[in-house]
């Protein structure tokens, strides 16, 4: 249940950031629309690094259980 709520919050957050940037772009405020890009890049890096760390932990658990690594 926690994962589902976290996923929904993340989707809503990203959609709000993209909507804000799009709205600012249509209003002619190019600087404000581009200012959201670093936030999206930081979010992307955070998510990918977290996923990589989780995959490495799972691989270590499989190795510790005596299974052959892939």
Tell me what you see in this structure.
The chain is built from three helices and no strands. 0% of the residues are buried. The chain has one domain. By secondary structure, it is mainly alpha-helical. The model has no long low-confidence stretch (mean pLDDT 86). Helix content is 84%, strand content 0%. The chain has helices at residues 2-26, 30-35, 37-64.
Write the layout of secondary structure elements.
Elements: H1 2-26, H2 30-35, H3 37-64
Radius of gyration from the CA trace? Answer: 18 Å
Secondary-structure element pattern, one letter each:
HHH
Q: Enumerate the spans where pLDDT stays under 50 for 5 or more consecutive residues.
A: none
User: How many individual β-strands?
Assistant: 0
Distinct helical segment count:
3
Mean pLDDT: 86
Indicate the proportion of strand residues: under 5%
- The helix content, as a percent range, equals over 70%
Q: Which descriptors would you attach to this protein?
A:
mainly alpha; 84% helix
Brief summary:
With 70 residues, this protein is an all-alpha fold. It is 84% helix and 0% strand. The chain has one domain (2-64).
């Amino acid at each position: 249940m926690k994962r589902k709520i976290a996923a929904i919050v993340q989707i809503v957050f990203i959609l709000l950031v993209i909507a804000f940037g799009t709205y600012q772009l249509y209003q002619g405020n190019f600087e404000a629309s581009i200012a959201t890009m670093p936030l999206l890049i930081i979010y992307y890096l955070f998510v990918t690094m977290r996923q990589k760390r989780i995959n490495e932990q799972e691989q270590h658990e499989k190795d510790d259980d005596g299974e052959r690594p892939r």
